[in-house]
Design goal:
The protein is of the alpha/beta class. It folds into 2 domains: 215 residues, TIM Barrel (Alpha-Beta Barrel), CATH 3.20.20; 68 residues, no CATH class. 44% of the residues lie in helices and 14% in strands. It contains 14 helices and 10 strands. The protein has an 8-stranded parallel sheet with strand order 1-8-7-6-5-4-3-2. The chain has a two-stranded antiparallel sheet with strand order 9-10. β9 and β10 form a beta hairpin. α5 runs parallel beside α6 and α11 runs antiparallel to α12. The chain is globular, with a radius of gyration of 18 Å. It starts with a helix and ends with a helix.
């Protein structure tokens, strides 16, 4: 039996990424009801709002779901306490050191996974005692490693330094992509961008439309002097690109980014001056669909591709 399925008590080894401004209770519950593990993205919430989303998610699904907590944010400790209080099934931590909270969460019966972008982070995860590691290549839309290592290279590298089950992320949004990740040594996949363009995503319809309109080359890893994110090209992206080309420092980029830029683009729908974070896989997303349908299509394509591969002669 698949270790990720067993670990999180889910039907399919598909984890929905906990994306800011996209991953509320509606999306998380829809993914969980569809057989995956839905995650509420706490990065764009305050503690009270997170608790509200958790409670609404409990009413919308009787299946396991989790919360993604970026440890760099000021509310992270409050988020941890809320997850313990509400007895969520899983917590996926990111953007920080997993050592501080892993044991506390596990002592309270919560499964813990941590997101890494290099082998150094994976070794820390193993030492911290997490249950699984999300291995995120630089194709992803979220916070990426400065090394810019692709998923194809990163997963087998991490496989060499840990015995823990791996969840591949970054550039995965199809059944064939999922099969490739499994062949590299992952036991599950985390998918963000394709669910960002789902019916249940809390992203603004303007942002969803920009995702389905995206073609190859429409995203670029940016703001690496802050925390690298992959952005859809728009007017704001062009300002970032020109500033980085001219050698802007961290402080200058912080001023350009300002406050609420991601909210402005992804949640409020300003597709010109907003920050539009999305992965490279957006070029293969052509339609806004319900989350359950997305899962079914990925699983069906996975098994079809696996059968096709087994029937080929090498």
């Amino acid at each position: 039996m698949n270790t990720i399925i067993n670990l999180f008590n889910i039907k399919y080894p598909i984890i929905q990424g906990g994306m800011i401004w996209c991953s509320g209770w509606r999306l998380a519950s829809a993914v969980s009801n569809g057989g995956g593990l839905g995650l509420i993205g706490s990065g764009s919430m305050n503690p009270d709002l997170l608790q509200e989303h958790i409670q609404k998610c409990k009413k919308a699904t009787d299946k396991p779901f989790g919360v993604n907590i970026p440890l760099m944010f000021s509310h992270s400790e409050d988020f941890i306490k809320i997850c313990i209080q509400e007895k969520v099934s899983a917590v996926f931590t990111s953007a920080g050191n997993p050592v501080k909270w892993t044991a506390i969460l596990k002592d309270n019966g919560i499964r813990v996974a941590h997101v890494v972008a290099n082998t150094k982070g994976a070794i820390k995860c193993t030492e911290a005692g997490v249950d699984a590691i999300v291995v995120e290549g630089f194709e992803a839309g979220g916070h990426n490693g400065k090394e810019e290592t692709t998923t194809l290279v990163l997963v087998p590298h991490v496989k060499l330094v840990t015995h823990l089950p791996l969840i591949a992320a970054g550039g995965i949004g199809t059944g064939r992509g999922m099969l490739a990740a499994m062949a590299l040594g992952a036991r599950g996949v985390q998918i963000g961008s394709r669910f960002a363009a789902s019916v249940e995503s809390s992203a603004h319809p303007n942002f969803k439309q920009k995702i389905v309109e995206a073609v190859e080359g429409d995203t670029l890893l940016s703001l690496k002097k802050l925390i690298g994110v992959r952005l859809l090209k728009n007017d704001f992206f062009q300002k970032v690109f020109e500033s980085e080309t001219n050698g802007a420092n961290k402080e200058e980029l912080s001023m350009l980014l300002g406050r609420g830029r991601a909210q402005k683009g992804m949640f409020e729908g300003d597709i010109y001056e907003g920050e539009l974070e999305i992965g490279q896989i957006s070029a293969l997303i052509n339609e806004i669909k319900p989350a359950a349908q997305i899962i079914d299509e990925i699983i069906n394509e996975y098994f079809a591709a696996k059968k096709d591969l087994c029937n080929k002669n090498f």
